[in-house]
Amino acid sequence: MKNSQQVVSFRRRREGLTDYRKRLRLLLSKKPRLVIRRSINDISLQVSEYHENGDKILASAKASELKKYGWAVTGNIPAAYLAGLLIAQKAKAAKIGECVADIGFNKSVKGARVYAALKGAIDGGINTPHSGENFPPNDRLSGKHIADYAAKLKKESEEKYKKMFSRYIKSNIAPENMAELFKKAKESILKGSK
Length: 194
Known about the structure:
This protein is α+β, with helices and mostly antiparallel strands. It is built from 9 helices and 4 strands, in the order H-H-E-E-E-H-E-H-H-H-H-H-H. It has helices at residues 11-14, 20-27, 77-93, 113-123, 138-141, 144-156, 158-164, 166-170, 178-191; strands at 33-38, 43-49, 56-62, 100-102. A 4-stranded mixed β-sheet has the order 3-2-1-4, sandwiched between helices. Strand 1 (33-38) and strand 2 form a beta hairpin. Helix 3 (77-93) packs parallel to helix 9. The chain starts with 10 loop residues before the first helix and ends with a helix. 35% of the residues are buried.
């Protein structure tokens, strides 16, 4: 009779929170990881370093922190890019210049918010291996597509405009001015002013 033993996998693997094969490949680089995680209304970035007793977070930033820099609406591509710039500034302060990107269980979709955040981190000065073909175009990074759509919708139907951009209006932001707001927030982050 065979001895049947059941091997229980790690809790985070069972819960679908960690892909240990992918994590091992990233850790073999011996570089800090730029961990990018997104939710519906936010995106968070952390520079994490492996230690036997647990990962150590060296720097972190969230899109919700951008309010200090004049950017009130999170959860879109420009906010992800600005959060990437912010993590780069914090990483520079912690004397981190090189990382590998860890997108976790996010699907690799060309032009996604994850890649907008990575582009922001790279533009901010973090050296990360990447393929430029996955980054969103510059007009999407700057919010020009939002401004163009808002202007078009406002001409067609005021009611649809108010419904579609209610979060912007609630935050006293004119979505037609997204490109200008993006430019000001980017300059504010690069200057380091709060």
